[in-house]
Amino acid sequence: MKKFNLRNLSIAFLTIAFLGFQSCSEDGMSGDGETLSQAELQTILNTDDIAGAVDTALAEIIGGDSDESATVGKEGECYSTEYTETGFVATFNNCVLNGTDNINGTVTATYEVGSEMTTFTATYQDFYVGNIKVNGTRTFEISSSTEQTSVSFSIISDMSIEMEDGSVISENGTKTFTIAFGDSLEGTMISISGSWNVEADGNVYAVETLEDLQGSAACEHMTTGTMVVSKNGLAVTVDFGNGECDDVATLIYPNGATEEISL
To answer: What's the half-sphere exposure (Cβ side, CA atoms, 13 Å) at 183?
Structure first.
């Protein structure tokens, strides 16, 4: 099978890479002394940052990008693909991603295109981004509006990431992204909802959105919505604001205490 060009899949992958720059981090303390640190929340978000880098490479294969603007080089220079009727197997050999991290390893991609929904599953086997190793699967369920003014996709993750120091972070659960396209970055809106778990350093963090996290593509951070992060009995609500494009969020603790922070 030759390269297939599914516009919505490419948009979905590239949007995930873009969302990597919208990560948030917060510090906090509950009334009983239990804490949720900035480093812990960065860990919670770290899996998407790394997976987003891999998704960028897959987006180029899906979109058939082979010009000089490609971020991982041309096919044949550092990666090869074997196509089947249901997807492809891509093998990367020391490809430089965006001029920074080298990527190595194999990813197997399968897809199913329906009239209303496209499903795409990427399975990583000892896939390296720099010195970080990725294993597991990410399944994308993608749909778009009839006029293609918006695209919605859910990501079901079951993956582990081994850091350079040997520590392992795992994530499983579902996140749903919606992009409503406007005439400009300011008019293009992004929303995120879902429920997922992250395990790291012996702790399990349960994350659930209460109100969809939303923001303009022109803003660095999400600007509305709330989510709860639970750890060892501590449930902290993170309120991203009233829509103003800023870097401020509010932590709300179980005892009612609040803390305004910079993202």
So the answer is: 0
